């Protein structure tokens, strides 16, 4: 077995020494999961019995968040102050997520109730972690919001950049393969199915900081596999975008945009013969 040269070990040592301290990514993601279990007892292994127990857990969450934030370099404010700001936002966060869960319940005939959605729907879970990450992103925290969004991506197949702006009553149905870019703006009561991409027409680095992803106005439904690209692309309110549509220009409100596929099906006279489908 060949022995690696000492110079390679020295090169790796220099690389390790040149990077900043590792972020507490795993602990932070675990804390986010614990927060969802605190906000929604349907996600908890054992619901808390009293208000004092809940208050104690809220205090513990705030303390743990502050400790983790002290390990993050280049914070925009002291860790304790950021933890206080985020904790104060928890009532609004819970209310927003309950609206999301209610929107899913209203649109999905298979849903048996809010509890089922909160405890088991990947679309709700991805939205919940997005809203947590977005709140941190708005406060200028480096790297942690992105780590949290990638954690949700790994668990659900839903990739939402924490910089995206998503309005109330957001409904992700199924969700696998869904991609929402950093500068996307989504209004209220929007429903999106699996495989949808809200992306950029170009991904050159020179576009950093510019509006690259589309705007989706209120009460829009986007069906599976649709791709909507471009920072100037606006889907008007109350529109329906059909499955597999490729859209790079704006459409007015109350539009119906769909892809018309031509499908031929033929069959031999002999039922035992091989079936041939041309799609």
UniProtKB/TrEMBL annotation:
Coiled-coil features, chain-numbered ranges: none
Transmembrane segments annotated in the record for this chain: none
UniProt-recorded name of the protein: Serine acetyltransferase
Domain of life the protein comes from: Bacteria
InterPro entries per UniProt: LbH_SAT, Ser_AcTrfase_N_sf, Trimer_LpxA-like_sf
Keywords associated with the record: Acyltransferase, Amino-acid biosynthesis, Transferase
PANTHER family to which the protein is assigned, alphabetical: SERINE ACETYLTRANSFERASE
SUPFAM superfamilies linked to this entry: Trimeric LpxA-like enzymes
